[in-house]
UniProtKB/TrEMBL annotation:
Transmembrane segments: none annotated. Gene3D superfamilies: Pheromone/general odorant binding protein domain (1.10.238.20). Residues 1-19 form the signal peptide. This is Odorant binding protein 9.
Amino acid sequence: MKFLAYTVYLLLLFSVSIAVRNTAGKITQNESAKKTLGNCKTETGATMADIESLKEKKIPKTKTGRCFMECLFSKAKIMDNGRFNKKGMVVAFTPALKGDLTKMGKLRELSEVCEKEIGLNKLENCEGGKKIVECVAKHGKSYGMSFSTTK
């Protein structure tokens, strides 16, 4: 369960980071991250309790919290129109792999496993983000995607 919590936390950090990188203009990264978070909060109606559950490294239990998480994944292109985007997942995680081609290959394999597990259909009720986190947590170690909390 501890691994799942770290996976939730890291997927969200990567999502916000990628969403920030995709924002054009003169806005600083911190301001862009705040803007992305604020936009997703507004779009989904997420409450502070929803956001706190993510800060506590938990998958939100409420629909608004799950929709908030899904919004962040969509901004990072890990999801596209309610569907898992394996290519987007690879792009989102690649910077963290620091050019390690072996890990990049494993990441591609993991994204394919998750695509098979999650499917190609649009996921309703904001269940997509939850399914992505669960898949990465379930299969990540098998593909060398071990997450740590060191800064």
